[in-house]
Amino acid sequence: MQEDKNSAQQEDKLKYYQILGLDESAKEETIKKAYAILLKKHKGNKDRIEEIDAAYNHVMGYYVVNEDEEQYAASNMGRFGNFWYHNKVPVIVLLVTTFALVVLIINTIRTKPTDVNLHFIGDLYVLDINEVYDDVGTYLENAKAPNVEQLVLEGESMLEMQFASDARMKLMSLIASGQMDVIISDAKTFYYLASQGLFMPLDVSKDKSGQFIVKDGTFGSGTIPLDDMLNQAAGNDKKTTEKQETGTPVRQKNDYAVYAVDNMDDELLFGIRLEGTKFLDFSNVSGNDLILSVFHQPSDYDLAFEMVDMILNLDPATLETQESDEDDWE
User: Fold this and answer.
1) 99: which residues sit within 8 A by CB, 6+ positions away?
2) 117-329 CATH
3) Distance in Å from the first CA to the final CA of the chain
4) CATH number given to 2-64
5) 286: three-class secondary structure by DSSP
6) What is the pLDDT of residues 51-95, one digit of tens each?
């Protein structure tokens, strides 16, 4: 059996020499010259060129292919193996990209659109962001799908710096898409964001019980009655306020109003200082000189100001005590 196999291989070798027009005694230089001449002679004849290449490679001993290898190479598995060997990297990249895209689509379909957003930005401490989310969902009655996020914009370690870089990219995306409403930040972050024109001017006051009353302070936004503005324009109302005469709010002198210069170089009331805020204490949010502000174009105007009222005026601990007393009475 072995002799037959050797005899067949010898015949194949002789056949390859014959294809090149040589005998078995031909030297290497002679084989190379014959190969070059035949390539030029049969240029354009694909089948003939392949036959000459195969004969030359076998004669020169560049590769040895046995019968089993030839059969495997010709099979579907062989063709697949060859394809995988040469294309595995782009195929893996394509599969990973496709998987990520499918996951993104599924999450987009499953995720309900948010109707109001609360963002903690900058140097402040939130013990548990999920706890804050639960508290907002509990006490903000008209919100069906609130969103609460924290964005830390600075870091010291390499890992923290990477997270901070991601947070800055996320912030840019949120600003561009307008998916912001109420923002709580440290003073440094507040003044920077105000200088970029991020905030809405506010009209802030307190009632007799000490409860905050916060409105849109943009000139002509509705904080001045429309009839008064028309009368003033017609010259029928001589008793105008400073706000009506200048088009800017009167600067409030109190310990909670925070003024800042915006991107138009106007100094306006953009923030409310959050010292002793019951809601933040209850939700375990802390920091130095925290300031509340409202995005200049909130996604839901009414819910945004409802959230502002909740943060400034609500005392969850008192509510829970009242509910507990009611349960005991029953």
Assistant:
1) none
2) 3.40.190
3) 100
4) 1.10.287
5) strand
6) 888 888 888 776 555 556 556 556 666 566 666 666 778 888 888
